[in-house]
Amino acid sequence: MNRGGALLGWINSWGRVLHFAGYALAAAASRASYTPATRAVTLKQIYFTAWQILPLFLLFAALVEFTLIRVIVSVSREYGIADYALDLVLRGVVLELIPLLTALFVALRSGAAIATEVALMHISGELEALERAGDDPLALEFVPRVAAAALSVVALTVLAGALAIVSAYLVTYGLSPWGFGEFTRVVGKVFGIPTMLGFTLKCMLFGAAVAVVPIAAGLEATSKVKSAPVAVLGGMVRLFFVLGLIEVVSLAARYF
Q: What is the DSSP track for 142-185?
């Protein structure tokens, strides 16, 4: 009985996440949702989500990328597949690893904070007060966070990807300009239009998940303050699951 109740609660919880995700994404895609007030909140959220962490994130990305690229290039040369090293770097590091690491970085930075903020707003009755005042909490509070998270993940991923491409050239060819022609040929082959469309879609899904799942978790908090940590923890667990699922589906769509 307890197992059945737990399973039912798990299903209901995911159902609420999916319901809110559809509602929030539909609102985020509507131009009517972006009033001057919501645009101001969106810019504020982008500042906190991306701009404040930019130096630390780029340093972290540079260290991880340079280390991985050196390892891939060295191992490729050791096993006689150096001709494929750059292709492996671009596909494995730039297209797969960087978007996931960026989403995890933003999730750790903002995911728990968003869930906590929404939970406290729900507990304090602030969301209900907005509704009584004739304002839509979804448009005023939630849509800006979803839009800001999606834009932040895409922007940070592009910056980290550009940094990885530069690092790949330096590790492979050093400061010599003679490898530029071959390098651009491989880059053009890897980053075709279908690949870039899939890459952009994955980044947008990562970014939306970073905000949608924590917001849905925060709304699950009850009127008791003690329910906030439980809601936040459950939201973060679901968020990491969703990010992993998006990555697995992306890999399956690309390579199967």
A: IHHHHHHHHHHHHHHHHHHHHHHHHHHHHHHHTT-GGGHHHHHH
